[in-house]
Amino acid sequence: MNKIISLSLIAVSALTFSACVSSSSPSFQTAQTLDEKKVCDVNLNGIDKVIKTAKAYNEIAIKREVEFRRLGVNNSGLITAVEEGIKLDAKEVNPKDFKGKESKTVLPIDFAAERACKFAISALVQEKEAKTTWRLAVPGDGYKY
What is the pTM of this model? Predict the structure, then answer.
C-alpha cells in the first residue's frame, strides 16, 4: 500500500512540475498547444504582451531556422517596427525588408503586432507538421496513375 501511495505521489509531482515548466516559458513544445487567436489578440491581451510573446517565439524560430518572411519582411523586422511604433505612439508601422530598406507594406500597429505573433507561433507549428506531411507534397509518391 505504501508503494502505491509513494508512486502516485511521485507521478502527481512529476506531472505538476512538467505542467509548470511547460506553461511558464515559451518553447517549441508549448507553441504546438497554443491557441493563436487567443494568445495574439491585442484587444484581450494588450499590444505589449502580444509583442513580447511574438518576440519570445520568434527567437526560437530563428534558432530553428524557420523564421517567417512575408512580402519581403522578416518577422523580426516586423517585431522591431512594432516596438519602435509603440515607443513613438504611432498608429501605423512600415517595417524594413530583409535587405534593410523600407518596405512598401504599411500596417496598422495593432494588426502588425497580431501578425507578428501569429507568424512566430505558426512557424514552429508548421515545422512540426511538415515532418509528417511532406510526403503529400511529393508528386507521384504513393499514387498510381
Answer: 0.70
